[in-house]
Design goal:
The relative contact order is 0.18. This protein has helices at about 20-30, 40-45, 50-60, 70-85, 90-100, 115-125, 150-155, 170-180, 210, and strands at about 5-10, 105-110, 135, 165-170, 185, 200-205. With about 210 residues, it is α/β, with parallel strands linked by helices. It is globular, with a radius of gyration of 16 Å.
Length: about 210
């Protein structure tokens, strides 16, 4: 085994939430007078913590989003999760294999703890992730592309950064893993490979992951 810890991003890597959440985010921003397309939402916010949405809107327009923006948005997202969310194809298989092989793993997500857990409960992935394996940008001061979240996860799991590998599908996440001094496998199911050029290696299917870890 080349690594002592596999760190998974959550949205788009374990749960197929990016299309749902970015469709809703684009619609809500547009509703509030900040016209945003689905493609622009993916470009600007995929893989980011919520503070990036607030920061970019204020930077671009000089206006602040409503105080209840996060609450309203997450309410819409969680309702959509309950209706439609599914695990990413191959996620269950790779988690079963890592568990059977005794390979440590965890999730480190820009999403809130509540968002991670709601998604895991709906998709059945909660059986693989007890609390000690779940890390959120809420746990650190800065979200991706800062390295803080991945470094926090590695420290809590007791593994040096150079012995960790991150599975990411967003440019911000790849930047964060690089800044943390970790290898990163870029998952290209939703993101063009050209946008993940900083990845150590690329994969288009989670089924490829087992071979890339050895």
């Amino acid at each position: 085994m080349r690594y002592d810890l596999v760190i998974f991003d959550n949205d788009g890597v374990l749960v197929d939430s990016e299309p749902l959440s970015n469709t809703l985010l684009a619609a809500y921003l547009t509703e509030l007078g900040h016209p945003t397309s689905y493609e622009e939402s993916l470009r600007d916010y995929m893989g980011a913590a919520m503070h990036r949405v607030h920061d970019l809107v204020q930077e671009r327009t000089g206006q602040r989003l409503p105080d209840d923006f996060d609450e309203v948005f997450h309410g819409r997202v969680f309702a959509a999760f309950e209706r439609e969310l599914e695990p990413v194809a191959g996620a269950v298989d790779i988690l079963e294999k890592l568990t059977a092989d005794g390979v440590p793993y965890c999730v480190a997500s820009s999403g809130s703890h509540e968002r991670i857990r709601v998604g895991h409960r709906k998709t059945g992935l909660d059986r693989w992730f007890e609390d000690g394996r779940i890390f959120s940008s809420q746990d650190v001061g800065r979200g991706k592309p800062a390295p803080d979240l991945f470094l926090h996860a590695a420290e809590r799991m007791g593994v040096p950064p150079k012995r960790c590998v991150v599975v990411e599908d967003s440019p911000l996440g790849v930047q964060a893993a690089n800044a943390a001094g970790m290898d990163v496998l870029g998952y290209t199911a939703m993101t063009p490979a050209a946008k993940l050029t900083g990845a150590t290696q690329l994969l288009s299917d989670l089924a490829e992951l087992a071979d890339l870890l050895v």
